[in-house]
Amino acid sequence: MPDDDPQLHAFLQPFLQNRAQKSLQLMVQGTTSDAGKSTLVCALGRILADAGISTAPFKPQNMALNSAVTADGGEIGRAQALQAQACRIAPTTDMNPVLLKPTSDTGSQIIIQGKSIGNQHALDYSEYKKTARSAVMESYSRLKSRYQAVVIEGAGSPAEINLRANDIANMGFAEEADCPVILIADIDRGGVFAHIIGTLACLSESEQKRITGFVINRFRGDIRLLQDGLDWLEEKTGKPVLAVLPYLQGLYLDAEDSLSLNHGKEKTITQLNVVVPVYPRISNHTDFDALQVHPQVNLTFVGPGQTPPPSDLIILPGSKNTRADLQWLKEQTCDWPTHIRKHLRYGGKLLGICGGLQMLGKNIRDPLGTEGDSGNSHGLNLLNLDTELKPEKTLKLQTGFLQFPGQQPVAAQGYEIHVGISTNDNLTDTGCGLLSDDGSVFATYWHGLFDTAPALSAVLQWAGLSAPDSVDFSEIREQQINRLAASVRSRFDWQKLHKALSGTF
Question: Which of 164, 360, 420, 462 is deepest in the core (most CB within 10 A)?
């Protein structure tokens, strides 16, 4: 723990002195989605871990298409894997016991303690939450028994009245677990005081009392101009403002779900242009974070109705509903299948990841309706492979070597999350995926392949970048966690938090 943090040292001293008897459980809820819950939990986890307190993250219920694989072959939200890294521990399925992966506007695949139990309609899941609650509390109890501190992340907003029945994500959990809550609000989107006061007004009296203080996130400007508002908020609510956190320009961490388009730095010299279609059920788009920060790569996401620009490399990302997203590609005004064939004809390269791999083949069969309606879809017919979707999900951490023709093999690592088995006819095996006979199309089931420098450089060289810079996104991620933690540590009023938790504020 830094010696120049006397407030933090004083706050943590009881926990350091009485490890067997003194523990800390703290929940972060937000006034809105994307208020900064995930990043605050990440920062607090790193601060506590670096102070010598064993700490674990926890999110009772998550809805996200960005997921990660644990060492025991389970599946959790990507944000919780990042938070585990911040706590300097390996992720486990207990850190996110309920994960919802939307397959349509009204349905989701339900993951309980790392394993899929199938798909449910939103109305059916609302009733199922009574059952899911036991898994949530079971996982939480295990974490409490193993770690001195558990930092908990809520979902969305606790003010969503329509979702209050059988709630396991926000105040419903906080009440049952009897843990204090920090409420975070994003000032960058405006109306921060209305967000906070409005959220409080939607809560019951006991829930209001459970909120120990507020954090205002993404502030830009002179904080002296905000002080009158902070004083008013504390007087109005009787609760402290624990921190005003600045807008951290250029902060790039794994997104929980929403696709981030503002990662990375200004590119002075772009040598490789990469295009990614953003279909409705795109999953694990964190695969592209490393490309966004690479100084020689210009990454463009192409949404509905948009025309893809000329590029050196097209990447088809993962999908939670592969057949539906394939149909979406075919229905776009730009006619993606025709665009892709023209792109290849003129010397471009094509990469498919997970669901993108399945789209590149001849057929995708879903006889049991695993991802949606049962049936068969004709793929893009660019690789000689067939895929059949099955109820059993493949969940694997992967390590190995990646080798393209004319290159030396390089160490690679990643993870697989997919339903379906793909069979191929004599395609070149690169160690991490399959390569077409002419070397222009590469397909892999490995997510996270770009996170380590050697594998990323190998892919970029294959795509046409003759001398790729070495960019280790795993190291960049670690640097960003430290940057975030330092910012929060220096701006958090630990004395106010201590007083709020002890009921003396």
Answer: 360
